[in-house]
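User: Could you write out the 3D structure of this protein bound to adenosine-5'-diphosphate? I've included everything you need below.
Assistant: Certainly. Input first, then the structure.
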Amino acid sequence: MTPLLSVKGITKRYGAHIGCADVSFDLYPGEVMGIVGESGSGKSTLLNCMAGHLVPDAGQVVFDTRVAGPTDTVTMSEPERRMLSRTDWAFVHQHARDGLRMGVSAGGNVGERLMAVGERHYGDIRGKAADWLERVEIDAGRIDDRPTTFSGGMQQRLQIARNLVTGPRLVFMDEPTGGLDVSVQARLLDLVRGLVRDMGLSAIIVTHDLAVVRLLADRLMVMKSGHVIEAGLTDQVLDDPQHAYSQLLVSSVLQV
Amino acid sequence: MTDQAYNFAYLDEQTKRMIRRAILKGLAIPGYQVPFASREMPMPYGWGTGGVQVSAAVLTPDDTFKVIDQGADDTTNAVSIRTFFERTAGVATTTATADASVIQTRHRIPEDQLSEEQILVYQVPIPEPLRFLEPRESETRKMHSLEEYGLMHVKLYEDISCHGHIATSYAYPVRVEGRYVMDPSPIPKFDNPKMADMAAIQLFGAGREQRIYALPPYTKVVSLDFEDHPFEASKADHPCGMCGAEDSYLDELIVDDTGGRMFVCSDTDYCEARQAAGHKGKDAA
Ligand SMILES: Nc1ncnc2c1ncn2[C@@H]1O[C@H](COP(=O)(O)OP(=O)(O)O)[C@@H](O)[C@H]1O
Ligand SMILES: [Mg+2]
C-alpha cells in the first residue's frame, strides 16, 4: 500500500538551535500518529514543517495527491500547496482563535472552505454548515452567532467542523485539547475519535498528554530535543517503553 | 485661461509619464491594482486626488472634460475639480456626457452609453475589495496572485444570513475577465452591468492608497453572487419625477417639511436632456 504521507529526513533549525532533526516516518491511510514529548521537544516545529507552515532546512514531505500521486509538498508550487491545505489537508490549532475568523458567523466559518473551493449555492453551503455544526454537537440554531459568543470547547469544535467540511484526508492537530477543562477535553476527544473512525481520516496529533494518544493514536513517536527517540504501536510504547526517556515520560504520567 | 505657473494639467511631465506607465500596466492586466507614487495635489484626499492625477495624466489640450459627483455636475467637489483643470490645462469643459472625451466621476456611471472615443476616470477611496475581512496587505496580495477569492463570498454569505439577501448595494465586488476581483469604487450596484463590455476605457485612481487599476474597452466584468441569490442591479422602483425615465438610477428627495418625497434621476445631464426633448415626469412643473 502507498503511504498517504511519507516524511523523509525533515530537519528545521532556528539559527544554530535545532527545532527538529532528521525525522522520517510513513503514515498509511486511516492511521492516526501521535507525537509526544515534553515542551520544547520539537513537536510543533515538525508538525508545521509537515503542514507547509514552516519550510524545513532539509527533507521531504511526500503526500499521495489525488491528481499526481506521491508528490513532495516542500518543493511543490505555493498555489498547489495552498490548494492542498484547503482541500485534502486540515489543521486544527491549539488556540481556536488562530483557526477561526472571529468576526464571521459560525456558518460563515464552516462555509469558507466550501466557498474557497468554488461552491456557489448559498442554500447548499448553509445546509452543509448546519449539518456540520450538529456533527460537532453545536446546536444548528447558533449558525448565525459569532464564535466570540461560544465557550472554549465549542470554539474548538467549530474549528474542527470548519476543517472537516471539505472532507480532507489528512488532519494535523497541535495540542487540540490544550487549555480546555478536563471534562471538556474528554468530550472533545470522544468527538474526534468518532469523526476519525466514521470518516476514515488519517491524522497526526501533537500532544504532551499521553491520555490523548492512548485514546486516539494507533502509533506513537516520542520526541526529545528535536529527535525521535522511540516509535512504535501506541500500546507497545506506552506499556513497554524501551528508551530511558520514554520510560521516564510514561512513568511520570502514570503516577499522576 | 491657462495659469502659466503650472505645467499643463498641473503635474510635471515626468510624473505624468510615471502615471501613464501605471495606467498602461493596468490596462494590460485588467483589474490588477498597480502601485504608483501618488503626488500631493492642491486638494484634500477625500476629494478624489487619485482620479485627478489619472485625469491629469490622460488629458490633452484637445480634450473636453466633464466631472460628475454622485451624478451631478454642480456639487462643490465637481465644480472645483472642473475649475482646476480649466485653470491648469485650459481644456474645454462640459456637462453633456456625449460631448465629453474625458469624464471624471465619483459614485456614478453616466446613464448614456459611452463610446470608444471616451475615457471614464473613477475616484476610488479603498481599492482593495478583500480589505474588510483580511486587513493584512501581504495576505491580500497573495490571495490576488493565487486567485484565492473564497473570502469575497464569505462576505456575501454573511450579508444573506444577516439580511436575507445580499445587502451590499455600493462598491459591489466584481470579477474581471475571470481573473482579478475588483472594487468598482462606491458606485451603486445598479451601475455594475454598465462596466461590462463598455466601449470606453475605464481608469480607477486611488490617491491615498496609491493604486491605479483599469478596464480596457469591451472587458468582461461579472458581479459576484450565489446561484440561488443572483446579482440584481436594483434601483428605486419608480419613474423619474422630472423626466419620467424608467431606466435610470434615482435619488430620493424630500421636497417639503411634511415628508413629501420625490424620485429624480441621479444623472442630472441625462434628466435635463430628456426634459429638453419633451419628456415629462409626474412631478415636473
Ligand atoms: N520561531 C522560533 N524561533 C526560535 N526558536 C524556536 C522557534 N520556535 C520554536 N523554537 C525552539 O525550537 C524548539 C522546539 O520548539 P517547538 O517545536 O515549539 O516544541 P514543542 O511543540 O514540542 O513544545 C524549542 O527549543 C523552541 O524554543
Ligand atoms: Mg508545541
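Strands of chain A lie at 5-14, 17-27, 32-36, 58-65, 69-72, 89-92, 170-174, 202-206, 219-224, 227-233.
User: Perfect, thank you.
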